[in-house]
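Researcher: Go.
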Amino acid sequence: MTTVNGAQVHKLVIACDAGMGTSVMLASALRGEFAGTDVQVEHTTVTSIPTDADLVLCHDSIAERARGNTPGVPVVGFRDFLGDPLVQRVVDAIKDHRDIEG
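Model: Structure:
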Protein backbone atom coordinates (compact mmCIF):
# COMPACT_ATOMS: atom_id res chain seq x y z
CA MET A 1 0.00 0.00 0.00
CA THR A 2 1.07 3.53 -0.76
CA THR A 3 -0.04 6.70 1.04
CA VAL A 4 -0.52 10.23 -0.24
CA ASN A 5 -1.67 13.31 1.62
CA GLY A 6 -4.74 14.98 0.13
CA ALA A 7 -2.79 18.24 -0.21
CA GLN A 8 -0.47 16.47 -2.67
CA VAL A 9 -3.28 15.27 -4.96
CA HIS A 10 -3.32 17.43 -8.07
CA LYS A 11 -4.20 14.75 -10.62
CA LEU A 12 -6.93 12.29 -9.64
CA VAL A 13 -7.51 9.55 -12.20
CA ILE A 14 -10.70 7.50 -12.50
CA ALA A 15 -9.70 4.26 -14.21
CA CYS A 16 -12.06 1.81 -15.82
CA ASP A 17 -11.69 -1.51 -17.59
CA ALA A 18 -12.98 -0.60 -21.03
CA GLY A 19 -16.44 0.83 -20.56
CA MET A 20 -17.37 4.46 -20.63
CA GLY A 21 -20.61 4.49 -18.61
CA THR A 22 -20.62 4.88 -14.86
CA SER A 23 -16.91 5.64 -14.59
CA VAL A 24 -17.39 8.65 -16.87
CA MET A 25 -20.31 9.79 -14.69
CA LEU A 26 -18.12 9.45 -11.60
CA ALA A 27 -15.33 11.47 -13.22
CA SER A 28 -17.82 14.18 -14.15
CA ALA A 29 -19.24 14.28 -10.62
CA LEU A 30 -15.76 14.55 -9.13
CA ARG A 31 -14.85 17.36 -11.52
CA GLY A 32 -17.78 19.21 -10.00
CA GLU A 33 -16.61 18.38 -6.47
CA PHE A 34 -13.20 19.85 -7.20
CA ALA A 35 -14.29 22.82 -9.32
CA GLY A 36 -12.32 25.88 -8.30
CA THR A 37 -9.49 23.83 -6.79
CA ASP A 38 -6.16 22.72 -8.23
CA VAL A 39 -7.30 19.08 -8.43
CA GLN A 40 -7.62 17.86 -12.01
CA VAL A 41 -9.85 14.81 -12.56
CA GLU A 42 -9.16 12.55 -15.53
CA HIS A 43 -10.88 9.44 -16.86
CA THR A 44 -8.87 6.69 -18.53
CA THR A 45 -8.66 2.96 -19.02
CA VAL A 46 -6.68 0.94 -16.53
CA THR A 47 -4.01 0.33 -19.18
CA SER A 48 -3.57 4.05 -19.94
CA ILE A 49 -3.20 5.64 -16.50
CA PRO A 50 -0.92 8.67 -16.87
CA THR A 51 2.45 8.46 -15.16
CA ASP A 52 1.86 11.78 -13.42
CA ALA A 53 -1.26 10.60 -11.56
CA ASP A 54 -1.18 11.37 -7.84
CA LEU A 55 -4.08 9.06 -6.95
CA VAL A 56 -6.14 6.47 -8.84
CA LEU A 57 -9.74 5.49 -8.09
CA CYS A 58 -11.13 2.37 -9.74
CA HIS A 59 -13.47 -0.54 -9.19
CA ASP A 60 -12.19 -3.23 -6.82
CA SER A 61 -12.17 -5.73 -9.67
CA ILE A 62 -9.35 -3.90 -11.48
CA ALA A 63 -7.47 -2.39 -8.54
CA GLU A 64 -4.59 -4.89 -8.69
CA ARG A 65 -4.14 -4.27 -12.42
CA ALA A 66 -4.10 -0.52 -11.77
CA ARG A 67 -1.47 -0.98 -9.05
CA GLY A 68 0.65 -2.99 -11.45
CA ASN A 69 0.42 -0.19 -14.02
CA THR A 70 1.20 2.61 -11.54
CA PRO A 71 3.95 1.58 -9.13
CA GLY A 72 4.28 4.02 -6.26
CA VAL A 73 0.88 5.64 -6.87
CA PRO A 74 -1.92 4.97 -4.38
CA VAL A 75 -4.84 3.07 -5.93
CA VAL A 76 -8.15 3.07 -4.08
CA GLY A 77 -10.60 0.39 -5.15
CA PHE A 78 -14.31 0.82 -4.48
CA ARG A 79 -17.43 -1.26 -5.13
CA ASP A 80 -19.99 1.19 -6.56
CA PHE A 81 -19.20 3.90 -9.11
CA LEU A 82 -22.02 6.11 -7.87
CA GLY A 83 -22.75 6.70 -4.21
CA ASP A 84 -19.94 4.61 -2.73
CA PRO A 85 -19.05 6.00 0.72
CA LEU A 86 -15.38 5.17 0.12
CA VAL A 87 -15.28 7.60 -2.81
CA GLN A 88 -16.74 10.32 -0.60
CA ARG A 89 -14.14 9.58 2.09
CA VAL A 90 -11.40 10.05 -0.53
CA VAL A 91 -12.94 13.34 -1.69
CA ASP A 92 -13.15 14.55 1.90
CA ALA A 93 -9.56 13.49 2.62
CA ILE A 94 -8.32 15.44 -0.41
CA LYS A 95 -10.27 18.54 0.62
CA ASP A 96 -9.20 18.23 4.28
CA HIS A 97 -5.57 17.38 3.42
CA ARG A 98 -5.67 14.03 5.20
CA ASP A 99 -3.72 10.90 4.29
CA ILE A 100 -5.18 8.49 1.74
CA GLU A 101 -3.93 4.91 1.61
CA GLY A 102 -4.28 2.82 -1.48
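Model: The mean pLDDT is 94.
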